[in-house]
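Check these lines:
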Amino acid sequence: MRSISADWLYTGTGLPQFNSGVLVAADGRIASIGQRGQDGEHFPSAVLIPGLVNAHTHLELTGFEGQNEELEFPRWIRRIIALKAGRSEEDFFHAARTGLQSSFASGVTTVADTGSSAGPLRALAELGGSGTAYLEVFGPHPDAAVANMAAFEARLAELSVYESPRIRLGVSPHAPYSVSSPLYRATAQLARNQHRRLAVHIAESEAESDLLERAAGPFAEMWRSREIPLPALPGRTPLAWLETHEVLGPETLCIHAVRADASDIARLGRHRCGVAHCPRSNRRHGQGDAPLRGFREAKLRVGIGTDSAASVSPPDLLAEARAAAVLAGLSAPEALHLATQGGADAIGLGREVGRIEPGKWADLALIRLPEGVSAGSLADAILASSLEDVVATFVSGRSVYHEK
């Protein structure tokens, strides 16, 4: 047993507690919550909060900062593909390792990562991280779906050696402009057969909507140039298109969903999907704002994500929470919920992480507080904190970051 305490304890539920902490059991879970003990590690002038949950990131793209110039979205996608082509598997691993270390330094303890390399899984295993690494599959031509799927299944089997009680391997058919109809269906069926979580970038851009609703726009032009059959008309919204391909379900995380309309929100609710909301990335790429207020009114499982360093840098989940608060008129506790329990619920880990309570993993972050903070102003102080205010981070009760 070990004790971790601070001047304030913010559990994510109930009232803040003064001079309190947690007792961590030998298995890395929280044994109890209460007053500061005589022994253990105490952090003065700080608050102990649930470890933050990043509902969408691309750790393997760490190092691509500065690649977010004002480009048409399809052109930006092509740029990222070209940059990735210049990296080896070891490059991706080192990038993901750096990205995960930065996540720990920002108070993030659980990630929902999407990538095409083994790098994120290797980094999570080496550094003792927590979360799901969604392996991406690509292939927009339907004639290649069988071959694409065979290669993908082999890659999944190869990477499954990195799975553990705290690290899961998921699947991610990347997006409708990069994955064919039969490949989408096959990937979704594989996810259900193997009981894996599924994530998909969806309803992210006008170009994507143009492709699926009108068989037009920049992505349609790319398909024509590669002799890929265009979507049949009359078209559907991207989320309706996913529904027809049996991709939506409780295990599905819909990333971005900027262009979700009222019918799409109802569709997400019927299928009990999770949503990863990335407000700063959406703005940075000129996609507009996702209907966060509508998601919340429909009681969807919503978390927030930082997306990639190639979109917004440095990744800062509390900055995303502040942006979400402005967008949807949220209170500080509501915004913090998106970055903790909300994110955990969205990615299917709500029973394991997201709050400080007995039985959950002892995933914790310590945030430095300004003078004069009271119980009533504590949530606002946490939300307003910067990356430099993170004092320490623990995963399963083990220190993964401590400021120097």
